[in-house]
Amino acid sequence: MTYGEFRRLCLIVRIFFHYNLDELIPLEFVSRVLRLYRRCLFWIPNEYLNQPQGVRLRLALEQLGPIWIKFGQMLSTRHDLLPIHISEELTLLQDSVTPFDGLKAQHLIESALNAPIHTQFNNFNITPLASASIAQVHTATLKNNGCEVIIKIIRPEILSLIQSDLKLIYRLALWIPHFIPSFRSLHLIEVVHNYEKTLLNELNLLREADNAMRMRRNFYHSQILYVPKIYRELCTKNILVMERIYGIPISNIVMLIQYGVNLNLLAERGVHIFFTQVFRDSFFHADMHPGNIFVNYMHPDNPQYIGIDYGIVGTLQKEDKRYLAENFLAFLNRDYRKVATLHIDSGWVPPGTDIEDFEFAIRSICEPIFKKPLIEISFAHLLISLFNITRSFHMEIQPQLVLLQKTLLYVEGLGRQLDPNLDLWKTAKPFLEDWIQNQIGIPAILQTLKNKIPIWASKLPELPDLFYEHLKQNKNIQNRIDRLASNLYYEQNKQKKSYCWFSLSPILLLSNIMLLILSSEWTTLSIGLIISGWITWLIGWWIRIRPPRVPNKPDS
C-alpha cells in the first residue's frame, strides 16, 4: 500500500467511526475488536447517533467524495446485498459537486477540437450550467447554424482519481471477507468490478453519444419521448455536444401543475416508454433518475418526456425478454408454479432446485402482497422481495436484471409521484399480453418468414456449391480418419515388437551373467550372449524410432 492510499484509508476510517458505521458490521468477534479499536480512537466524535443507519451511510459517502457517491448509487440498486431500508436511503445520494474552472473547461474543449473554441461555437458560457462528479456542462451556440447546444466535459484528471480510489476499494473488498466471514457470500470483488466497468463506460462520452443516437432513432417522431440531437462530428472521448432542451424537471410537480400538464397521462406514458424500450427495442435508459428526465410543457394536454444522459443503458436478449414477460404475466395471474418453472428454465436458478420448495417460497412472498388492491402493490418492491428470497436458492443475479430493477424503481417512483393512483399492473398487462402474442402467435411466425425468406433466397444459388463442398469435406475428413487409424494400428504393432526385443535383451544379458558365475571363465557362448543382448536392444530401439510406413498425404 502506497503512502497516498494509506492516508486515504485513514480518512475513510475516521469518517467510518465519525458516523458510527461500525454498527453495520455483524456481531461477531471482529466486531468486538473494532469496538476496542474504536475506544482507542476516542478523539473522533461520534455524531448522528439519533439518525438511522442508512442516513449515516449516505452522509459518510457524500463526505468521501464523488467516486464514493457513485459507488453508493450503484449499491442502491443491489437489494440482494443490502437491507431495503439502507438501499432506499442510498437512492437519495445527490450527484452535484463544486464545478471546476470555466477557463479550464474552455481549454479542454479547444484541445479536444484541436482548434480555438470560436471556430465551432459562439456565446460560450464560461459559467457551467450544471456540475456532477464525472463531468460538467456549459452552454453555447453552434457557429454554422446558430443552434443552442450544451457541451458536456469530463472533469480533468478524474481518471487518475478514479483509479486511485478504485485500488483502495478493491483492497477493502479483498480484506473485508477475511475479517468478517459473513461478507464472503456477497462476492464483493465482483460488485466492485461491475462498478468499475460502469464508471469507466461513463468516462467515454463517445459511447454515450452513440447510445443517445440509437435511442433517438428508436423514438424518432414519437409523441411520448424526445431525445435531443447529438452532434457526433464534434464529440470526442471527453467532449459531448448535444442540442439544448428546455423543459420542466420531472420532480418539480408544482411547476407541472402550474402549466396544466396532464399528470395522469404523463405517469402512464412513463410506464409505456419503459416497456417499449425493454420489450420493443431491447435497449433501455438505465439511469432514469429525476435529474435526467424533463417534461415538454408546450402541449400540456399531450405531455412529452425529454430524456438526457445515456451513459448507462441496458440491453436484453430475446430469451430474457420472453422470460421476463411471461414472469410478469404469471405474477399477475398468481401462477407461482409457472414462475418457479420459468426461473429454472431460464437458468437464473440452478437446474437441480426443488421446484416444490421454490414455488412455496415464491408463494409465501407474493400471497400477502396480493391481498392488497393491485393499485397499492409496488411492482419494483415485489421484484426486490423475489430477488431476496431466490438468493437462498442460489439464484445468479444477472447484470441486465439489476439494471432493469433499478430502472423499474425509478419509473414506478416517478409515476406515483405524478399520479398516486397509478396502477402499474393495469398499465403493463395489456402491453405484455400484446407483446407475447406478437412473439409466439401466427403473425409472429409470418413476420419471421417474411424476414427470413429474402435471406434464404439470396443463399439459394449457393446451395449446389455448398453441397459439393460439404461432400468434399466429408471425403477429406474420412480419408484423414482412415490414415489416423492406420497410423495408430502401425504404431501399436511397432510398440509391441520393440517391447518384445527390449524384453529379450535383458534375458540374454542375465543368462550370460549366470553362465559366468557357473563356469568362472569367458566362453564362446557367453560372448555370443552378450553380443546377442546388445543386438536385440539395438533392434528394439531402431523399431521404436523408425518412421511410420504410411505416408501423410496432403488432402486433395
Automatic annotation (TrEMBL):
Major localization class: membrane
Domain ABC1 atypical kinase-like: 93-342
Example GO BP: regulation of ubiquinone biosynthetic process
Record-linked SUPFAM superfamilies: Protein kinase-like (PK-like)
Gene Ontology molecular function: ATP binding; protein kinase activity
Pathway: Cofactor biosynthesis; ubiquinone biosynthesis [regulation]
Membrane topology reported for the UniProt record: Multi-pass membrane protein
Organism superkingdom: Bacteria
GO cellular component labels: plasma membrane
Known EC number: 2.7.-.-
Compartments (UniProt record): Cell membrane
Keyword field: ATP-binding, Cell inner membrane, Cell membrane, Kinase, Membrane, Nucleotide-binding, Transferase, Transmembrane, Transmembrane helix, Ubiquinone biosynthesis
Annotated active site: D287 (proton acceptor)
TM stretches of this protein: 499-518, 524-543
Residues annotated as binding ATP: L129, A130, S131, A132, S133, I134, A135, Q136, V137, K152
InterPro entries tied to this protein: ABC1_dom, Kinase-like_dom_sf, UbiB, UbiB_kinase
Known role: Is probably a protein kinase regulator of UbiI activity which is involved in aerobic coenzyme Q (ubiquinone) biosynthesis.
Family designation: Belongs to the protein kinase superfamily. ADCK protein kinase family.
Protein name in the entry: Probable protein kinase UbiB
Gene name, Swiss-Prot/TrEMBL: ubiB
